[in-house]
Amino acid sequence: xxxxxxxxxxxxxxxxxxxxxxxxxxxxxxxxxxxxxxxxxxxxxxxxxxxxxxxxxxxxxxxxxxxxxxxxxxxxxxxxxxxxxxxxxxxxxxxxxxxxxxxxxxxxxxxxxxxxxxxxxxxxxxxxxxxxxxxxxxxxxxxxxxxxxxxxxxxxxxxxxxxxxxxxxxxxxxxxxxxxxxxxxxxxxxxxxxxxxxxxxxxxxxxxxxxxxxxxxxxxxxxxxxxxxxxxxxxxxxxxxxxxxxxxxxxxxxxxxxxxxxxxxxxxxxxxxxxxxxxxxxxxxxxxxxxxxxxxxxxxxxxxxxxxxxxxxxxxxxxxxxxxxxxxxxxxxxxxxxxxxxxxxxxxxxxxxxx
Length: 355
Ligand code: COI
Hints:
Layout: E1 5-6, E2 30-37, E3 41-49, H1 60-64, E4 67-69, E5 72-77, E6 80-84, H2 86-99, H3 107-120, E7 132-141, E8 154-163, E9 174-179, H4 196-211, E10 216-219, E11 235-240, E12 243-246, H5 258-269, E13 274-276, H6 281-289, E14 293-300, E15 304-313, E16 316-319, H7 327-341, E17 351-353
Parallel strand pairs: 1-3, 9-10, 9-15, 12-13
Antiparallel strand pairs: 2-3, 2-8, 4-7, 5-6, 5-7, 6-17, 7-8, 11-12, 11-14, 14-15, 15-16
Helix pairs in contact: 2-3
The structure holds 2-OXO-4-methylpentanoic acid (COI).
């Protein structure tokens, strides 16, 4: 495996009070960096002082968006830095790479680079519950060229950001607007990749939802506007009549969320039926009307578990569980957060040591 170089800094930043900085606003002293060109492939893995980048105004990513990212989190177990599902996240980065025709990064180098970076930056991992060190690996095309083609050169970076809860109001129920005008992704498109295009596609609808007083949009499928897909920064799960249901990812238009997979694994371990299948918005509304829609919640690395209090659809608001956090949602959040911080036994092998 290629050696990971370490270039030290002498200019250390003052560490912030994480309870005051929200999500993704501050970055640590170092970052991981690696480059790709057709002659050398992925080469020169290194940990270097965090800095601004300089790119050509003709940089292909700025114009055509050939880029991918992922998001994961590190915690302290005692004084040991650990990362939640590090290998699964790095595998998913390569799934996104394939979809965008980006050369896959060597898994062992990427994972070793990630762990080494987190170990070096251990002092940045917040100790408070509900806080963590958010890890953002990303790859972008780095050609200077205005032709529309798959690029030849790429840069892979990992940056770290100490974070509190993703939503400013923390673990509190959110209001979600079911979006039936705009779409995020379609079958055959990029929906399964963590790529900027999917987030760009969500911005306008997100703004409209905010203006109407909602926290997020719930996307429906792009063909029939009938089946529930995801929330954009989270996957979505319903508890209907004792069963947990989340939209299946087989059409390739939904992100195969790692927290979503964690929820399914934990639910099955508890003996709660948990299925991935197509679920239409009409089925959700009908379940609400006949009293079987027990709980709705989102899942994602940034948000962890986010209870949903209200779903708005076609001008009508449907209040879930009287607007309160459901029992199952709370238990799932406590369990996953407990595994994160080492207070709940990790039967699943999700926690990976960084050093
Ligand atoms: C994550 O949950 O890690 C995400 O990528 C969601 C969002 C912050 C883009």
